[in-house]
Amino acid sequence: MFALFENPRLRGGIHAEEHKTETSSLPIATDFPLPKKLYIPVQQHVGKPAEPLVMVGDKVLKGQLLAYSQGTISAPVHAPTSGTIVDVKDFPAPHPSALPIRTVVLESDGLEQWAELNVVEDPFQLDPEEICLRVGAAGVVGLGGAVFPSAVKLSLGRKNKIHTLLINAGECEPYLTCDDRLMQERAAEIVAGIRLMLRGMDAPKALVGIEDNKPEAFAAMREATRNLPNIVVSQVPTRYPMGWDRQMLRYLTGQEIPADGRATDIGVVVHNVATAYAVYKAVCLGQPLISRVVTVSGAALAKPQNVEVPIGTLMSEVLAYCGLDKAKMARLVMGGPMMGDALPIAEVPVVKACNGILALSHADIEEPEVQPCIRCSSCVTACPVGLLPLEMASRIKVNQLDAAVDLGLKDCISCGSCSYVCPSNIPLVHYFKFASGELVKRQQAEHKAEQTKRLIEDRNHRMERIRLEAEAEAQRAAEARAARLAAQQQAQQAKAEGTEKTAPGVAAEETA
Amino acid sequence: MSSKPISGPHTAVSRRVDQIMWLVIKAMAPAIACGIFLFGWPALYLLATTVAAALLFEAFSLKVKGVAALPFLRDGSAIVTGLLVAMTLPPWAPWWIGVVGAAIAIVLGKHVYGGLGQNLFNPAMLARVALLISFPIEMTTWANVSPLFTGPGVIESLGITFGSLPNADAVTGATTLGYVKTEFSQGRLLPGSLLEYSGFLAFIGWERGSLGETSSLLLLAGGIWLMWQGVIKWHIPVSLLLSIVLLSSLFHLLDSQHYLGPWVHLNSGAVMLVAFYIATDYVTSPNTPLGQIIFGAGCGMLIYVIRTWGGYPEGTGFAILLMNAVTPLIDHYIRPRIYGRYRNGKPLDISNS
To answer: Would you give the distance in Å from CA A319 to the centre of its chain?
Structure first.
């Protein structure tokens, strides 16, 4: 509060209660019992869903391809264990709506039999393109939550001139410690992944940003990069949303990504630290992305901890493993508490995006009544983007969406800092998400109207053309008839001329 | 478990409106206590009357509006307004001054605009200015310092607040600013007219003045505590005080016979109260740090200008209201720079980075 002048590299943000100590000191549990059935959605990434290529009844091995990627922005999905495909159906997705999406159901045989893995002797000698291919084939996506196909990003990085690979190890969300534990326990593997990424993009150096509330992880990463001068591990202040890649980039380099551009425009590519680990597994071990470390935490759990879980495990099973007290759970959240989604049911699968499963108690999410805005401008101070949340919300409240857009609605990153600090408990982010949804709807309606208009115009043109053609046809027919008639007349005339001499009166009558 | 889709953050609440209001009340408490100590029971009666009236008018307005009054009464905003109105009143003013002040502040200053968070002007300053213009005698009759238990007793004080002020000339006098202004009008110049003035007593509050405005020390301490608590930010108080200091120093240096020095300005009238508790009013001040600095500096400048060249000895109320009126304009033009964009809203140029 007495900070006279803000660090221009570190704007806004909040410091929520961390709740990290419950899980950050415990090792990652790797003894999670293999579930009987795994539910593997074909869409676990940004882009087009993968297309299943297995049939019901097929026997599959661990790591075998289940669905292949379609189009440039997509990612394949692999079998997390060996077993039999028992169904390919619609199954509730880990989404606030829990609407069903296409899901491959795999019954495990308990043998954990690996498919043949494609391992090379020295992965660091692979061509950059080959690295990208392998990362793409392993179904690696951004594990920080955005789940953008990593191979696409790497290829993009190779095409543009990249000077820095930024490894985002901020993990600024409260509760979450999966990246923290991963760095503490598997720093060497992560660093190998970073080196492969650098090679895959032909980039010279990497920056790793770790929030300063994770000293052990920082030390482990420092140690693992001791002989690698081109990988710089730095600490960044603990202030949510430090893990917003643009915020971390600004803090570490002073550079800002233009509002209408991407990181590659200024020569930077950002990857999550867990993604680096997945890249290591994909290229060095040949293993596709079939499991991930998930922070399972919250006051409703007896044993909060980080668990390595096969993709497709039902969250209810993971929660049971961690000692869920159902009576205490007031809300189930996938992801962190700030940006995560509240899920209506726990019978949904763990997907690649799932970095946290939180079983929160009533005390964790107390919800007092919404009061009027007192314009305290806490939200303005907290906004890392530099928006005026209170002004935007007041516009949206009266349905002036365009005014909200003018104020920067489209620059909002939905980090929730404004809602968190609001003393009147106004659900500001909710307003912004609603407005963004409305804008999309409006855009779609406009698009539809345009399409309809085009169709009508096309139809009018078509009808006009048909009418004109018909007219032309009719005219042609008429002309033809007239021509025929004329020909007949001529013929008759000729005939008549022949008979004229005999009957001039008749011919004169005919020609009249 | 609820199945209503709820947006994040899924966290406990950090701070609520009523907590903020109580922090403000706590911060003002020492200055109020000092006022009651200095001016005795009448000050306490006036304060109680004003706050009670503020709560009643709040309840009345909410009833007229047709909303449940209790949750709003509990948020403490009416108490803060009532306290602020009382703090700006002459401590021995009659009870109805407090009641009328509370009515103006709560009904005209707040609920006519739509209630909490909607008002354009600071309710307490609106009340002060309206009272000053309407009842100039009552609003400029300043009781001498007569600490609790040495001044009028409990019963006698009831007569002062709820009856009429007996023997007014014997127990009242002018404030420093008022006195100096009168002296100027009679051709007497500065060093002479300030012979009895003690900078130290003015700082701790031992002087004639409004109920809760005299003690710069306690107001300053409360204000700094509020900053430390994160309730207010430094921008408005610092820019406001600094602009007064700069202007008064400049003119004092140029002509010390006609212009009061910075110390007198800072420790007279409502400057400290205004700088930390009134100008910082969330509702009526700008949203952005730069806007707040402009706002604070504008307040300070206007206070100095009105005090020095205006018709009234004290100009804080007018200055605040004028700057309140400018706040929407400031908020319209001063906006934070959005990430990845220039100040004008255009995206950053890639080639520049």
So the answer is: 25
